UniProtKB/TrEMBL annotation:
<feature type="transmembrane region" description="Helical">
    <location>
        <begin position="374"/>
        <end position="394"/>
    </location>
</feature>
<keyword id="KW-1133">Transmembrane helix</keyword>
<comment type="similarity">
    <text>Belongs to the multi antimicrobial extrusion (MATE) (TC 2.A.66.1) family. MepA subfamily.</text>
</comment>
<feature type="transmembrane region" description="Helical">
    <location>
        <begin position="152"/>
        <end position="170"/>
    </location>
</feature>
<keyword id="KW-0813">Transport</keyword>
<keyword id="KW-0812">Transmembrane</keyword>
<feature type="transmembrane region" description="Helical">
    <location>
        <begin position="182"/>
        <end position="205"/>
    </location>
</feature>
<keyword id="KW-1003">Cell membrane</keyword>
<feature type="transmembrane region" description="Helical">
    <location>
        <begin position="211"/>
        <end position="232"/>
    </location>
</feature>
<dbReference type="InterPro" id="IPR048279">
    <property type="entry name" value="MdtK-like"/>
</dbReference>
<dbReference type="InterPro" id="IPR002528">
    <property type="entry name" value="MATE_fam"/>
</dbReference>
<keyword id="KW-0046">Antibiotic resistance</keyword>
<dbReference type="InterPro" id="IPR045070">
    <property type="entry name" value="MATE_MepA-like"/>
</dbReference>
<feature type="transmembrane region" description="Helical">
    <location>
        <begin position="33"/>
        <end position="57"/>
    </location>
</feature>
<feature type="transmembrane region" description="Helical">
    <location>
        <begin position="432"/>
        <end position="451"/>
    </location>
</feature>
<keyword id="KW-0472">Membrane</keyword>
<feature type="transmembrane region" description="Helical">
    <location>
        <begin position="110"/>
        <end position="132"/>
    </location>
</feature>
């Protein structure tokens, strides 16, 4: 009778488990990793394709100055995405840990809090930034030629900031709730629609950069609608609940999401730093060359973000469930994947630089040569980037954020800014292209020499949230 009762309880528990719990408790780490990683990678590639498509259409349909102007406006995206990641990754980490502990009430409470915080913060930020758009554009590196285009593009992005934030936050929670395929589907729809709308608005309606910005917003809204399908699944764990404003919840979400906030903010620093350095050493020609490389960088960069996005729900869940060997195996598989992607991207850059530059409609041979040379040097950084994101995500996912913040600050701020200040004065524009590889490489070498040994051999830190 006792065994029958236990069997009934286990059956009931199995019926109550979300899809994420069922997968991570019953499958091998390798199978779970690729179930998260493959659709996440495809989704991230499509997301980055969205951004690259803007560049291709703007470069070919409006011109190199407009292309440089849209690149100047990239930090506007970084501001919105960084805050979205602060809320989404922070909330998603707590959500997955709570699911690992079988605390459904807490998981649903955190999800509700994250969506409401995103709404409030992005509405306020969007209004303020829309009003102050011209000073912001100048801060981001706009000059007299690029300012008018940049202002138009940024006004539209800031006006619709809440929609962009909802899409980003909800995609994280959908992935953490065991539906990476749906998260990918939302990005597929968004990318395809963005292609159609970019062509229509830039070449047919001749709306220029305004059309590019509107295409991105509308395509993002379509992706958001796709994610909402998740709420109708019977095994979905995501549910809105009565909101209770708990200070501890807000602080925990902010604390665990802060490394991603810094990382995305570092993207803004990266763009601004490169814009300033290239404007000083190479003028508008340098800005146009960097705009090509930055569009390509977004494509590669998001692949490594995809690795982090794949292992975060896994590590957080395993941590909540006290499955420490599974965490270490997840890190090992991610390391191999990150290094393999880095080698692939480096090969693409070295052997295909000319072809990559040509698709953006570059108008002059000077810009083409500068961008091609930049690609061969800049892409060296991808050999190291995966390692840095894996360990940043690992520490964040077990709620031990200080090392994660340290990794982010050193690779994205301290070392990068120092390299941009020192290397160009020493070896010219080649030093600008090598600044990111130097920052990523030094960080990765330190992590492999010191952090990896601790991760693999020492017991995990106790929960710090």
């Amino acid at each position: 009778m006792f065994s029958d009762k236990m069997g009934i309880n286990n059956t009931v528990r199995g019926e109550m488990m979300s899809l994420a719990e069922q997968r991570l408790l019953n499958q091998s780490v390798t199978k779970s990793f690729f179930q998260y990683f493959l659709p996440t990678l495809a989704g991230m590639m499509l997301m980055s394709a969205n951004i690259v498509i803007d560049g291709i259409f703007v470069g070919n349909g409006v011109g190199s100055v407009a292309l440089a102007s849209v690149n100047v406006a990239v930090p506007a995206w970084s501001v919105i995405i960084s805050i979205s990641l602060l809320i989404g990754i922070g909330g998603g980490t707590v959500y997955s840990i709570a699911n690992g502990e079988h605390d459904t009430d807490k998981a649903q409470r955190i999800f509700t809090l994250a969506m409401i915080l995103a709404t409030i913060v992005m509405t306020i930020l969007g209004i303020i930034s829309y009003i102050a758009v011209e000073p912001l554009a100048r801060l981001f590196g706009a000059n007299a030629e690029t300012l008018p285009y940049a202002v138009i593009y940024m006004q539209i992005i800031f006006l619709w900031a809440p929609i962009l934030a909802w899409e980003n936050v909800l995609s994280i929670f959908v992935r953490n709730d065991g539906s990476p395929q749906l998260a990918m589907a939302g990005l597929v729809v968004s990318a395809l629609l963005n292609i159609v709308l970019n062509y229509w608005m830039i070449f047919i309606l001749e709306m220029g950069v305004r059309g590019a910005a509107l295409a991105s917003v509308i395509a993002t809204a379509a992706g958001l609608l796709i994610y909402c399908i998740h709420f109708f699944k019977k095994d979905a764990g995501l549910k809105f609940t009565r909101l209770s404003w708990r200070k501890d919840d807000i602080l925990t979400v902010g604390k665990l999401g802060f490394p991603n906030f810094l990382s995305e903010a570092g993207t803004g620093v990266f763009v601004i730093g490169y814009n300033i350095a290239l404007s000083y050493y190479a003028g508008t020609t340098g800005l146009a060359a960097f705009s090509v490389i930055n569009y390509l960088h977004t494509f590669m960069f998001l692949a490594f973000i995809g690795i982090g996005s794949s292992i975060q729900p896994m590590i957080s869940f395993y941590y909540g469930a006290n499955k420490y060997d599974s965490i270490k195996n997840t890190v090992k598989i991610a390391e191999i994947t990150g290094i393999a992607l880095g080698v692939l991207f480096l090969g693409i850059g070295w052997f295909g630089a000319g072809g990559l530059v040509s698709i953006f409609g570059v108008e002059t041979e000077t810009i083409r040569q500068l961008a091609s040379k930049g690609i061969t040097l800049f892409f060296i950084g991808y050999l190291f980037m995966g390692i840095n994101f894996i360990y940043m995500t690992y520490y964040q996912s077990i709620a031990y954020v200080r090392p994660s913040i340290g990794i982010t600050l050193f690779r994205g701020f301290i070392l990068l800014i120092a390299a941009l200040a020192i290397l160009p004065a020493w070896i010219g524009t080649a030093g600008i292209w090598l600044a990111l590889p130097v920052a990523e490489g030094l960080t990765a070498i330190f992590l492999m020499l010191f952090a990896r040994r601790n991760v693999m051999n020492r017991p995990l830190q106790s929960r710090g949230y």
